[in-house]
Every structure is written in structure tokens, then in C-alpha cells.
Design goal:
The structure is a homodimer of 335-residue chains. The first copy, chain A, has 9 helices and 14 strands. Chain A is of the alpha+beta class. The radius of gyration of chain A is 19 Å and the shape is globular.
Amino acid sequence: MGKLIEDLILPYLGGFQTDVGLELLDDAAVVDGVVFKSDSHAVRPIFFPGGDIGRLAVSGTVNDLAALGAEPTALGCGFVLEEGLLMKDLEQVLASMKVTCQEAAVFVVTGDTKVVEKGSLGGLVMNVSGIGRRTSSLDHNLAVVRKHRSSFSARWVLDSNLQVGDKVILSGTIGDHGLAVLSAQEGLAFGSKIVSDVKPLNHMVKKVLEVGGVVSMKDPTRGGLANTLNEWSEKANVGVFVHEEKIPMREDVRAASEMLGVDPLEVGNEGKMVLGVVKEMADEVLEALRGTAEGGEAEIIGEATDAFDLVAMKTVVGGNRILAMPVGDPVPRIC
Amino acid sequence: MGKLIEDLILPYLGGFQTDVGLELLDDAAVVDGVVFKSDSHAVRPIFFPGGDIGRLAVSGTVNDLAALGAEPTALGCGFVLEEGLLMKDLEQVLASMKVTCQEAAVFVVTGDTKVVEKGSLGGLVMNVSGIGRRTSSLDHNLAVVRKHRSSFSARWVLDSNLQVGDKVILSGTIGDHGLAVLSAQEGLAFGSKIVSDVKPLNHMVKKVLEVGGVVSMKDPTRGGLANTLNEWSEKANVGVFVHEEKIPMREDVRAASEMLGVDPLEVGNEGKMVLGVVKEMADEVLEALRGTAEGGEAEIIGEATDAFDLVAMKTVVGGNRILAMPVGDPVPRIC
């Protein structure tokens, strides 16, 4: 997918000079001060433990806007429905979108629906786009960063802002969404039910920005934590070192991952945020995160370093290993 | 589709109080002064005479933003690709999007790609969302309207603005897109090639706004001219009377429609605009339209009236007939 984007999509569609453009491949773009994001969803099955495609699509776009430091102001929604989709299933997806929009305090203001013949969609695929705006919380956050890093001039929270010495914080347990969808796809039942973490994180992000000191944020969706950290390392040109024992993970997720042979660090999450924070503010940001409903299990999992230029992890069994950029999706149609 | 939107989508997703919201079901929404639109496309085949799904998706969103009187500033793009899609086909779609973006002077700044198993999509479906802004051309246009209609206070070009006495202008021939796609679907070859009219209309709209006096605009896509006029009649609570002999239509489109049994007034167009114009400015707007490449065949086709409260047409054979709201799509997967 990365190759497809770099070899085909960017050469044809890139090139626009703006504050935050397509080439940055960040969580969202900024044009004329408006933060803008488009995200399509083809998760299968459309209902999975802990969520559904509607909740996923709303949360995904809200979280991408929030990851830039923006406040989401409105969403657009495009459905492609398969003939034969039960109206009660569509209604359940819409009801779930409504609840998720209420949680995030954002509304759908524009949309469109198309119908295709019955095929491989599993009911429907959908796109949620969103716009967001700059807030005083973001301005405060950036001012706190500048207090500790005089050379800092970024106007948004970007992947490329990470610098040597910054702490890396993970807002909670990893792997829940990927294993929940995979178990639904495979028809597996585990001893304890693994449920997706899918949720909007904009309120949590606002709390953190009001503390300040956050330079980078990313919701570790496709490719999981391993993908997020590798993107940061590449874009910011720094090494990232994380400590396996610090990475929050549910025991049943760990067990299911081993059984199914997938790496929980490489599967997508839909209710977590990875934050790069200036080291002087890391403890305060951690405390603020832990004070929120969404970030109660947050941990400082590592830091940016100049000791090497890739992502490495100190394992619980001892020794370090490279955490490489994931190749392909371990779970197809996870989001 | 109208029933689906009113019975299911609006009750769940509507309710946001904003300048132009979901309930208006206008061409785009306005939030915080930002014009915002989302549109999905599932046309089949993805390549058809005169265009392809990429050109269609870019033009569709650009035209919807323009129909509100806005200038498009950026696009977002979400692809859902089917396994087995040839890379050369995807590349051709991207190249077409690039050309169309250049024509419209707008860029894609955010996007996303998902892959699904081979099924019924015919290669790919896609969503293009877009944002736009208010311009001095729009302000000028509205000032001209106010000169002729003192009670006018709308800040955007809306379906509901149409009033008794306003002229209805159509920017060119009707039915081309629908018949081109239908002939591609059916594998038909007509004596002369019917090609889609798909194109971005934002430059044409700008020229017209610089003349001024336009109260309503709509690109007659799904449901065609009949749908557009009925929406205007319902939303603005006026009758609309049009003259069949004034409606521009290619002879081969007329012949193909008769042969295939579809009403050319009910099939979608992708490169035309219907305009409601205060009567004092109708001739000037018509002249401006005819001076553009996109609107060379424009005609004044009718007017808003209080003689009745529906859409009626004076036919070429004599007598009037009701032009009803189309029921269902005469051409499936036309856009």
C-alpha cells in the first residue's frame, strides 16, 4: 500500500503547496487553515465485537483530525450499499454513528449514498471525511513546546516534529481492535471476549493539549504501533527506542495473538493515540491522560534517540530487536 | 433513495444547527463559513465514452461546491479497490483525475485506499469530498440579486431561494452522460457516438457570478433535470414551468432515449448546471454562459410561477404535461 501511494497516487495527485499537504502523508491536511481528512472503511464483518463499521468510520476521521491537534467541526459521509443489505443492519450502523457522533460532539452535514449489486462487500463500505479547526488548546500546547524547545516553529502537531529526547507515550492497551476483528472473521471464541477499542479520542486529546508539550500524535490504525513508530522515525529522521514491558497489552490479546500467529504490535487499533512529548512535560501529559476515560492505562513506552536511525525495542526476555515497518496487513479488511 | 434519506439517514444523522446543514439536502453544507461536500461514485463501467470514474468523481464534487456559489479549495479522495484491478486501469483513473483537477485548478490533499475481494464493483468505487470558500464573486452576485429583490437575505446560492418570476436557465444539452453510460453498459453502438458531458463547471460558474443575479444552482445529476426542478419546486414552494422546445438536446441522445425507453429528462448529467436567475438579469446571465466553453448551448428554458405548485412542461406537440419527480434510477450505477 505504501508503494502504491508513493509510486502511483502521489505522482498523479500530489504537488499542492499548502500548510500540510498530501506529500506529508500525515493524519490530515491543512488548507487555508481548515484541517481536512478523508478515510474509507471496508471492515468485514461490518459488525464485530465492540463496534461496527459506522462507529469505526466516525472515530477514524475524528481521531485523524485530533491527531493534528485540531478540533473536529463537521463530518461528511458516503455510503456504498450492496443490494440485499438488510435495512435493519443499515439502521443499526446509522444508530451507532449517531451515538459515536454524540460522544465526539460532532455532526454529519453532507453525504451521499450509492447502491451496487451484491458481491464481496459484506453489506456496505463507507467513507467519512471531516473538517476541523485550530483551537486555543492547540495554541497553548505549542507555546508550552516552545518554552522547552526554542527552535520549534511548527503550527500543527505533525509526525515530523519528533526530536531526540522526546518521550513516546501510548494512551492504552494495544491490539484489541485487530484481534477482535480477526476473531470475528475467523469465527473464533476466546475464553474471554476480546472487544475492539474503537472510540473517538478528541476529548482526550483536548485535555492533553491543555497541559501542553505534545509535538506529534498518531492513532496507530493500519500497521499498528510498529507502523506509527517507523513513520515517525522516517519522517522525523530520528531513532525510536521502546520498552516492551511498558507497552500495555491485555493478557487475552497476547494469548490470542500467539495462537493466531499475528504480531499485536502490527495490527490496527481504533481507540488509541501515540504521543511524542517534550521530555520535560512527559509526566504531566501522562498524568492528564490517565485522568481521562480513554487514556486510563497510558504509559511512557520509550523515547526518540540519535543512537540509531530505526525503531528498536528492548524485549522482556532481554536484548533488543528491531521493530520493522510491517509488510502487508496481517489482518485483511481490519478497517 | 429519497425515502431512505428521509426515513433513515436524516433521523439518525441530522440535527446540526449550521448555516447550511444536512436537512436542506442542498448540493453542499456550510459550517463555520467552510463549504463542505462528500460524494461517492460507483459508476459501471469505470471507463465510459467521454470519461471515467475519476473524472466523474472530481467533477461531481467540484460542481456541487460551485453550485452553492463557492470556490473549491481542496479535495479528499477515498478509494475502495477490488482485488484483480489492473494497475494500468488505476493509473488511467489517476491520470484522468489529475487532468480534471488541473482543469478545475484544485488539488487532492488527503486520501485513503482500501482493498476488497473481487466482487461486483467492476474494479473500484471511490469517494471525493471537497471544501470550498466564499468569494468576492459570490458577494457581488448576491448584491445584484438584492438590487432586484429587496427582501433577499440568503448568503449562499440555495435551492430554496427560487421565487415566482425567476427565470430557469440550463447551461447546455441534457441526457448526454446518462445515455453514454447506458450505451456502455448495454454494449450498444449508436450511429454517432454519444459521449458523457462530464466536466468541472467552477470556472463557468465564476463567470456567471461575476455578472450576478443567480439565486439557485444545481447540477442535474441523479434523476436529471426532472429531479432538479422538482426539488426546487418543493424546497422553494413555487411552481416551475418549462418549455420542451427550449431544452437543448442532441438528436442522437433523443433517438437513443426513444430506442432504449428512458426519459432523457430523468437521466443524470455531469457537466451541466441549472440556474435560477432574477428575471431582470436572465439575458445577461445567458449571454455570459454562452461566452464560456462549458455553457455555449445555454438556454432560458422556463420560469418559476405561482399558477400551480408543481413542475409542468409545455410540450412540442402542444399541451402541457406534469414533469414528475423520477421514481427510481432509469440507469443503474450511472454515477
